[in-house]
Design brief:
This is EstA family serine hydrolase. One of its GO terms (molecular function) is hydrolase activity. The chain has 381 residues and is an alpha+beta fold. It has a domain at 5-54 and 210-235 and 262-380: DD-peptidase/beta-lactamase superfamily (Beta-lactamase, 3-Layer(aba) Sandwich), CATH 3.40.710.10. The chain has helices at 14-25, 63-77, 86-89, 103-107, 122-126, 128-136, 155-167, 171-183, 209-216, 225-229, 247-252, 263-274, 286-293, 317-320, 366-380, and strands at 5-9, 33-39, 42-49, 57-58, 187-188, 260-261, 297-301, 306-310, 330-333, 339-343, 348-354. The strands form 3 sheets. The chain has a 6-stranded antiparallel β-sheet, with helices on both faces. Strands 4-6-5 form a 3-stranded antiparallel β-sheet. Helix 1 (14-25) runs antiparallel to helix 15 (366-380). The chain starts with a strand and ends with a helix.
């Protein structure tokens, strides 16, 4: 039985509802997901299927967008300087030849410390300060600054330690005070206990036989860079899909993968980043958005062994996933299929969540058709 589509769209965005309904009709009967978008600070799409409007989901690496927005705010304030060495803020990071690395290169996935030789425990993965302490002593897996690779499980902890050293507050505390609370965002780095009943456990991937064959053909040795980056080299290897289902992860909200959000929360955060929302000025000035959305690492990613593009932390969404978006679009996807971004040219802020882990991981394929439908409608306004 096809899921009913709930929610509203603004005039001119009726085609988005049709596109969402068409996609959902081809999905499994147990599909759950949400779609939300703003244009120039006005909510224009608010749809969901198989769930309710207030459900919260683990958004995996879409969490990183919140972390990088905190860093961008602190750079804009002058509290952080991109071309200072990381050791200016965090002296212990100099161990094992990392002393020359700048904050700019750290954010651009060029540090070479995608994990540790022996991996992390669940308690360490949940606690950014413990992760940072382990990473400070780790010998990098490539010469820092000479190449790049996705720091999947640790980039939020690395940036967070710089934030903590510079401000005396955790990245999560700065996010709560300056971003989540002022805009009442349903996007949490540390889910409060009273909100637990709204959380929907992540369901495992359900690949087709052909998709499973592709997964089985992918090298999974525990000491490959990819396995180290995703903590599969630990004594108890991490099952990525189950991470947000761990109460400890949800409670602490590690800044790489621990966020819990609705599509409204994802889209609302990016809308606030680039647009006036509710009478409040944009969080970021245009020059800051341009700096963080500029290509910094582009080409062969040593971890994913594929072409990837990063700005200052943010994925270059217009290159990696949605080429119809404007240059300088900032955003980040999550392993379960979530996607969120802000396109400063069209004023579009987009958020998508789904419950079941998508194949093959990262932004789910439906994001391309959904985002394009919204972008087309936005440009027609």
């Amino acid at each position: 039985m096809t899921q009913e589509i709930h929610g509203t769209v603004a005039d001119g965005f009726e085609g988005v509802r049709e596109e969402f309904a068409s996609f959902v009709a081809g999905e499994r009967p147990d599909y759950e997901g949400q779609l939300c978008a703003y244009v120039h600070g006005r909510k224009v799409v608010d749809l969901w299927a198989g769930t309710d409007a207030d459900a919260l989901y683990g958004v995996f690496s879409s969490t990183k967008g919140a972390a990088y927005l905190v860093v961008a705010l602190l750079v804009q304030d002058g509290t952080l300087e991109l071309d200072r060495k990381v050791t200016y803020y965090w002296p212990e990071f100099a161990a094992e030849g990392k002393g020359a690395l700048t904050l700019r290169d750290l954010l651009a996935h060029r540090a070479g410390v995608v994990g540790t030789d022996s991996g992390f425990t669940l308690a360490e993965l949940a606690d950014d300060r413990q992760l940072a302490e382990r990473l400070a002593d780790q010998r990098p897996f490539w010469r820092p600054g000479t190449a790049f690779g996705y720091h999947a499980m640790v980039s939020g902890a690395l940036a967070g330690e710089v934030v903590r050293r510079a401000t005396g507050r955790t990245l999560q505390e700065v996010y709560q005070e300056r971003i989540r609370t002022p805009y009442a965002l349903d996007f949490h780095l540390g889910l409060p206990a009273p909100q637990e009943s709204r959380f929907r456990t992540t369901q495992p991937m359900a690949p087709t036989p052909d998709q499973q064959a592709l997964l089985d053909a992918t090298p999974t040795g525990p000491h490959t860079l990819a396995s180290i980056a995703f903590n599969r080299n630990a004594t108890e290897p991490t099952d990525l899909a189950s991470l947000p289902n761990m109460p400890l992860i949800r409670a602490k909200g590690p800044a790489s993968v621990g966020g819990v959000a609705s599509a409204r929360g994802l889209a609302g955060m990016y809308a606030a980043a680039i647009s006036e929302v509710g009478g409040q000025a944009p969080l970021l000035k245009p020059d800051t958005v341009a700096e963080f959305g500029q290509f910094h690492s582009v080409g062969y990613d040593l971890v994913s062994r594929a072409h990837r593009s990063f700005g200052l932390g943010f994925q270059i969404t217009a290159d990696m996933a949605h080429p119809f978006l404007g240059a300088g679009t900032i955003g980040h996807s999550g392993a379960s299929g979530s996607q969120a971004f802000a396109d400063p040219w069209s004023g579009l802020a987009y958020g998508y969540t789904r419950r079941r882990f998508a194949f093959p991981g990262g932004a789910a394929p439906e994001n391309d058709r959904l985002a394009q439908a919204i972008h087309t409608a936005a440009l027609a306004l």
